[in-house]
Specification:
Elements: E1 13-15, E2 18-22, H1 28-31, E3 36-37, E4 40-41, H2 45-60, E5 65-71, E6 76-84, E7 91-98, H3 107-121, E8 127-133, H4 137-145, E9 148-153, E10 158-163
Parallel strand pairs: 7-8
Antiparallel strand pairs: 1-2, 2-5, 3-4, 5-6, 6-7, 8-10, 9-10
Length: about 160
């Protein structure tokens, strides 16, 4: 049985050096450079706030859940990870982004695994997918290391992975 958002309390996920939590308005200045919605990137704090409001509406409507990835020691958001585009056919599509200065430190591998396991075990999803460009070698490598495998080729450019 599915257990989809919104939840009475926003779920926090933690492992090792990260905690995944809801992004709040107090985080705005720290997330401008990684804030994007429907392909539109934030440039200003106002843009980021508008995007955060759209993400929160999607969450309240039961169509997504989006965590900020927080470095526990530094107490700052280093990236985000979550499910987007609804949950048709009991499937969650994962998306993620990490600030460039925090890449290659294990943050995203941990976050993707936490979110994938939460989706399957706590939300009751039957399938977790991620879609990336065939040219995005870093994302493809991350997905493979996180336990995803190629599910199907969507176009000449895009590949769909599934969590196994």
């Amino acid at each position: 049985m599915l257990n989809l958002p919104p939840y009475k309390e926003f779920p926090e996920l933690q492992y090792d050096n990260i905690i995944m939590r809801q992004i709040s308005t107090t985080d705005i200045a720290n997330i401008i450079d990684i804030c994007v919605y429907d392909g539109k990137w934030a440039v200003t704090a106002h843009d980021a706030l508008e995007i955060l409001n759209k993400i929160d509406k999607d969450y309240q409507d039961g169509n997504s859940i989006h965590w900020g990835i927080v470095d526990i020691g530094k107490n700052i958001i280093v990236g985000s990870c979550g499910y987007y585009r609804g949950f048709d056919n009991d499937t969650g599509e994962m998306g993620f982004i990490l600030k460039s200065e925090f890449r290659r430190k294990g943050y995203m591998l941990t976050a993707v695994n936490l979110a994938a396991n939460y989706g399957l075990m706590d939300m009751g999803l039957k399938k977790v997918i991620a879609i990336t460009s065939n040219r995005n070698i870093k994302a493809k490598n991350l997905l493979t290391r996180a336990g995803f495998e190629i599910d199907r080729t969507l176009t000449d450019e895009d590949i769909q992975y599934k969590y196994c």
